[in-house]
Amino acid sequence: MVDVLVIGGGNAALCAALMAREAGASVLVVEASPREWRGGNSQHTRNLRCMHDAPQDVLIDAYPEEEYWQDLLKVTGGITDEHLARLTIRASSTCRDWMRRHGVHFQPPLSGALHVARTNAFFMGGGKALVNAYFRSAEKLGVQVRYDTPVVSVELDGDRFVAVRTTKGERIEAKSCVLAAGGFESNREWLREAWGQNERGEWPSDNFLIRGTRFNEGMLLKHMIDAGADSIGDPTQAHMVAIDARAPLYDGGICTRIDCVSLGVVVNREGQRFYDEGEDFWPKCYAIWGRLVAQQPGQIGYSIIDQKAIGRFMPPVFPGTTANTLAELARKLGLPEQAFVKTVEDYNAACRPGSFDHTALDDCATSGLAPAKTHWARPINTAPFYGYTLKPGVTFTYLGLKVNDRAAVHFGGRPSPNLFVAGEMMAGNVLGKGYTAGVGMAIGTAFGRIAGTQAAAAARKVEHATA
Amino acid sequence: MQQLEALTREASALAGGGYPVIPILSANEAEVGRQMQICNACRYCEGFCAVFPAMTRRLEFGKADIHYLANLCHSCGACLHACQYAPPHEFAVNVPQAMARVRIDTYAEYAWPGALGSLYKRNGLTLVLATALALVLFLVLTMAARGTLFPGPLAGNFYAIFPHNMLALMFGVVFGFAVLALGIGVARFWREVSPASETGRSQEPSLRRDATVEVVTDVLRLKYLDGGHGEGCNNADDRFTLWRRRFHHFTFYGFMLCFAATSVATLYHYLLDLHAPYPLTSLPVILGTSGGIGLVIGPVGLLWLNLRRDPAHGDLAQRPMDRGFIALLLLISLTGLALLVWRDTGAMALLLAIHLGVVMALFLTLPYGKFAHGIFRSAALLKNAIEKRQPNRLQLGSE
Ligand SMILES: Cc1cc2nc3c(=O)[nH]c(=O)nc-3n(C[C@H](O)[C@H](O)[C@H](O)COP(=O)(O)OP(=O)(O)OC[C@H]3O[C@@H](n4cnc5c(N)ncnc54)[C@H](O)[C@@H]3O)c2cc1C
Ligand code: SF4
Ligand code: SF4
To answer: Is the CB of residue B329 less than 8 Å from the CB of residue B296?
Structure first.
């Protein structure tokens, strides 16, 4: 029997496996996906939000604990556990050397990413390179890995972990266990149940695209909640971005985002605007647009720009729909022509002259328009016009299992002695809602490492007890 | 055919209408364009090599951009293993493979004389034929000169078989042609990827000097096989290895030492009136021997790595070209070293004929084989070094 069983094959699972192995435990990792799809959502990530008090290798200036905490407080609106959040923040300042030892490379700040080089450390090659490095290191250290092995249930003895059962009916015993099997964002039924039916009779989640892996079905999460584990968070809370409607249903990853929203206007299926596109810098508010679009009829939106915007935003992966007149664009996008043209003309008329600067919160705003556009408002009047169709893209869900600072799973408020949880499966403890770039990996790394260490210690205790 | 005519008509109509003619992309080029569009929206691989930063200076990828980027790629494999969109993902991004397919097309397209460009397509065969022909040539010449391939010990006196001037003339002509052909090819490439309007702006001497120094050091260090993080590139799998870089260095510097040996010997011959055979401790022999050893280690290593290479890297159809070139280099060093060992025996004439035959084969195929990659890549690196020093026209605000 192996000491520590780790369920999942993403960042949190691998951090746990490596730490448990380093603590001397024998470790088995079971991953639902085949080898070529391993790494869950972690393979799509790009960076890690890191606290630091002075410039450090790839990070410039300082990003002290207090500022990090305030940022987290702001995005979550207070739905966060301060103790666990601060623990995550502090861990983010010391984990990079350990990551490097396991083969992760960080990238010196390059062209487009300079302004985030203060808060975030970027993985060279992205999350898949990180996952590859962790798997290589794990295998070198003698961690066993089994792919194509989804786990459906956990056998418990009270609050004590005994074994798991796989979809094939196999039973795997271990002295302790770490659950790191991600959220439930790719479980379409569960999303449907969580989002329900709206006043128009639509099932909004049917139109959602999943930005990450198809393997995070939340089977284990559901099983644990049914088995009496304490949960935290709201099933409709998820990180949602407005992405290109042509993105694949799963694994569209980073490249399907549409970055021109703040340079133009966004209309719904009826050709009406519905939110201030210039509220803040795109990276700061891109995460609200998924929900905004999800609330529109048909869960669809259209980002409209003109020639002036070209070359000022990250190039989109799919070409936009182009037209030489607004009316033609409406026809091509299937929007009601009159309503659309009127919306854009009203907007154009409301744009007050200012000095446009898309790198600052400039003074180009509309006046007397509802909803207003408060920055970067310039008339859309220079052909060709471009339109991009948007759909909500789910990044990950927030409903998870309640933990303490030892990453232990709780039953009726009591921590399990040998069952631990890390990553998306417990991220809701820190991130009750909202999001700020790089926090997902920070939580997974901090709690993955804690869970691995605790699981190794718990396995040793079992050994002593039986010896 | 009809389609082609329609396209031609359309193109000339566009040209007549005062529009710039948009060169029509080949399937391989279009595939690179498609993948670059995805990479440009993703950019996770920015740290690995020069391709990605160069890509970010563009929003669209025309023919010239594609040729330039393809030759900038060192086929290190890092971006394939790191790619979240690699097969089986439906985006099927495999940058090293797409780039390799375009690269060989560029060699063929810019080759001079144009008709010989097609030799790239069947390079394995070309190499075999060139080697066989050159070997036969020298064997026949030996027989003609001495009446026999085994004239008995000649105390290492090569010129007893081939008069020095005859060798100098033969190799001079072939080598001169190779240099000319490669030079014209790469000049054509350069003209296309660097329109005068672009490079013109950077003609400030200090910039040009900086760019040149950078390129020379990058080429000599083989910078882009370091993986961007000093741990090397990929070969068999997602593990990094410095051996590809090291074996390239053995090969390159081994080749250069052999070249230096020949050059020094030529100077000895004409300037100092010192004639071969040179003693073992002489400069030409020391240079040649150490170069020969490098040229054994390097190609053997590269061949070993090539046999273990992840089949997803690069273009499998080009393996005969890669391996043929490696084998030829290995043959040169092995026959050269054998000649050194047995130069005082009766086998010398035969060994000399074989050695000269393979050297001649290398010279003949230089402009139409794998050797071209070094030249084209250096040109692409030069373009990159110049371009990097120019302001970026794009102002991508967010992200
Ligand atoms: C496109 C995208 C970009 C992102 N970018 C960033 C970023 O730059 N920075 C950041 O911090 N966060 C980012 N995130 C969020 C980040 O991906 C997650 O917070 C983090 O990866 C969670 O790690 P994890 O190990 O908990 O889950 P995952 O990495 O999703 O791993 C879960 C694993 O569990 C496996 N699994 C699922 N169910 C089972 C089962 N029943 N049995 C066995 N195995 C199972 C899955 O196959 C998977 O391997 C991004 C997410 C997406 C989708
Ligand atoms: S190779 Fe893949 S991961 Fe790298 S930049 Fe291109 S799309 Fe992104
Ligand atoms: S294979 Fe290597 S050199 Fe080529 S583009 Fe990818 S990372 Fe760059």
So the answer is: no
